[in-house]
Amino acid sequence: MPLAFRKTTSNSARDGVQERCMSYDIVWEFRLPATRASEFEHAYGPRGPWVQLFRRAPGYIETQLLRDAEDAARYLTVDRWESRESFEAFRHRHRADYDALDQQLEGLATSETRLGAFEAIP
To answer: Which residues form the ABM domain (predicted)?
Structure first.
C-alpha cells in the first residue's frame, strides 16, 4: 500500500523531514430529499452512529461528511482508515452491527453509491 506523507510542524519538518502516514479512504455518494437533510447529517456526521460504530475498531481515523456546494441534495462521506487491513478487520468483527445500522438508516437517502476505495499517493 502506498504511504501518504504529511509535513509536520516541528523543526524536523522545516529541515525537510517528513512524517509517514498511511491512509485508506472509502468514498460514498448519497442523494437525499431536502426534508431528510438534518436527520442524514446527524446520522452520518462526526457524532452520529456510523462514527460511533467505526470508533470501536483499531485503525479508524475519521469520517468527513461533505455537502455539495452546488447541489444541496448531494453528499459525500469519506471514511478514513489507517490501512485496508484495518478496514477489513473492522468489517469482519462488526459485520452484524454494520448490517443492523445500515438497515436502521435505510430510506434516509434516495440513492447510495460507493464511489470507491482510495489510497493516498506520496
So the answer is: 29-92
pLDDT in tens, the chain (122 residues): 333 333 222 333 334 434 455 799 999 999 999 999 999 999 999 999 999 999 999 999 999 999 999 999 999 999 999 999 999 999 999 999 999 999 999 999 999 999 999 998 77
Please tell me the pTM assigned to this model: 0.80
**Are 100 and 80 a contacting pair, CB within 8 Å?**
no
DSSP string, 82-113: S-HHHHHHHHHHTHHHHHHHHHHTTTSSSEEE
Backbone angle region of 107, left / alpha / beta, with phi > 0 → left and psi within -120 to 50 → alpha = left
SS3 42: helix
